[in-house]
Each structure stands twice: as C-alpha cells, then as structure tokens.
Specification:
The protein has eight helices and twelve strands. It is α/β, with parallel strands linked by helices. The chain starts with a strand and ends with a strand. The protein binds calcium ion. The site of calcium ion (CA) has 6 residues, from loops. The site of calcium ion has 6 residues, from loops.
C-alpha cells in the first residue's frame, strides 16, 4: 500500500512517515500543497494524509483539485483542534475522514487501516439537503447552522431519507433499515418517530423537507 503524507511541519511528517513505514507501508512525503498535488497526480497512491494548513496551496485547494480531476484516492485530512468548520469543509469537499491534531499514532494507524479496508465509493461521511447537514460519523445534525438534537431512530430515519432524496421511502423500508434491531415494529411507531423528526427538523423552517406521500410513505425533497 502506497501512502502520501502532505504536511509541512517536519516533525509531524517524520513521525507519521516513520510510524507507517514500521507498519509496512510505502510512504512518500511532500512539504507543501503544490508538491503534494504533483506527487498525488503521478504517484498512484492508495491513501493521502493531507494537512489543512500548508504553504503555497492549502489542503482544501489540494483536495478540491484532486476531486475535480477525479482521482480515486482516499484522503484523510488533518485538522486543527477547534476547526469544526475545517472538518465540515473537508468532508464536503470529499475527504473520506479527518483526524484532529494532535493525535496519537495508534489513532492515525486505526483510521488509515479502516480507510484502506473500505471501498473508495463508500457513502460520504456528510449528507446534506438544503440547509440541513448530517455528519454521519459524529451523528450530528444541523439545520441553518443550528444543532438539531435527534434520538437514534429519528437520526436513522433522517439519514435514510437523505440517502434517498427525491424518492418515496415506504414504512416497510424504514422498518428494515432503521428498526432492524426490532423486527415487527408496528407502523404507528414509525409514524410517531417521523412526526417527532419533522417537529424538530422542519417546524419553523422553510422549506419543510419531509413530506408524507399518502398511502406510500415519506419523501425528502429539496426545492
Ligand atoms: Ca501544517
């Protein structure tokens, strides 16, 4: 497995490089955004570890150019501790995962292995529709920038409706996807959950995103 580390802080880059080599990976490094992008384009890497703050070209620009050029490489972004905006922006631009600095090497290694195991075309960690954003891994939902606290089932319903944006989702499908742990869930339980989800997500917001399709199920639609 070939890995590219794009990081300008020499100490951090060395620490990552040495650790990954000890684990048997082939590792190359680049110390700025331009050099990193050039190496990424010609190198056929399985994974890129990409710092956000870089000289010449920042990590977001590198990521954007990688994704625009359609390079099917997994990207793990390194972000600042308080950079919630960075994380969202990175995932939005197509990063596969992120790690907050400072981190323990064991954590980096676990993320790297998980990313290498999973397919490139796996579901994005961030789903969105209109002004709703769902961070699937953090199980965090915002609407218009405000956090919307949801129960586990409400979250499951929303995530599933988002994956099927524009399509009618039946109660049977929701039961299968979201209530898999509780076989034979009565449909009124699902209806009550959707009711609460709409109260939290749609009430007081325009447009209302979740619609009931009489006799069929539910539909999440963006204008
Ligand atoms: Ca940096």
């Amino acid at each position: 497995m070939r890995l590219l580390v794009i990081e300008d802080e020499t100490k951090v880059a060395r620490f990552i490089e040495r650790g990954l080599r000890e684990e048997g990976f082939v590792v190359e490094t680049a110390g700025d955004g331009d050099a990193g992008l050039a190496k990424a384009r010609e190198g056929a890497f399985d994974l890129i570890i990409l710092d956000v703050m870089l000289p010449l070209k920042d990590g977001f620009s590198v990521l954007r150019e990688l994704r625009t050029s359609g390079l099917p490489v997994r990207v793990l972004m390194l972000t600042a501790r308080d950079g919630v905006g960075d994380r969202v922006q990175g995932l939005d631009l197509g990063a596969d995962d992120y790690l907050v600095k400072p981190f323990a090497f064991a954590e980096l290694l676990a993320r790297v292995r998980a990313l290498l195991r999973r397919g490139v075309a796996e579901e994005p960690a961030l789903l969105h529709a209109a002004d709703v954003q769902v961070d699937v891994r953090a199980r965090r939902v915002t609407r218009g920038g405000q956090i919307v606290p949801l129960s586990a089932k409400e979250f499951g319903v929303l995530a599933h409706l988002l994956r099927r944006t524009g399509q009618v989702v039946t109660r049977a499908e929701l039961a299968e996807q979201v209530w898999a742990d509780l076989p034979n869930t009565p449909s009124n339980v699902i209806e009550v959950t959707v009711y609460h989800l709409r109260e939290k997500l749609d009430r007081g917001f325009n447009p209302a995103l979740i619609q009931t399709v009489r006799g069929a199920g539910y539909l999440l639609q963006t204008p």
